Amino acid sequence: MAFRPLPALLGTRAERLAEPLPSRGARVVAYVLLFLLGAVVSVFGAFVQTLWSPLGLLIAMVGTMAVFYGGLRVTGTKLGAGVPMAGWFIVLMVLLAPRAEGDLVLAAGVTSYLYLFLGAVGGVVCATLPTRSGFGFGAGPVEPRRPVRDGHA
């Protein structure tokens, strides 16, 4: 067997689709935790990308993408990537607002804009990857449609 560290971590499409879905209750708990984790990563990334520029941007993006992709893999649903992205985005909107003192957490700058843009694009990419379920809460795998022939199903 050949050594494949990255594909083994990400898995092939067939391997990902063959994994069993967690129970509905476990997924609901995971969604709540992923929302909170997305919010925490948002705060962490906002400060790290500014403090240690440009390496901080890389660290913040790796953490952000890990949460989005991890949510997808843990839950097996597209909602698993979308929920932490929602938490990440909501907190960033609060951090973008100027305070009464005039302070900003995310100031206008190249790294701040890259963090916002790359995080949003990465979240959308993770949310569009193939999953074990076509539905948000993972009602089950989607059966492929059979072609209709001669007007008969």
TrEMBL record:
Annotated transmembrane regions: 28-48, 54-72, 79-98, 104-129
Pfam families named in the record: DUF6113 (PF19608)
UniProt keyword annotation of Calcium present: no
Keywords: Membrane, Transmembrane, Transmembrane helix
Official protein name in the record: DUF6113 family protein
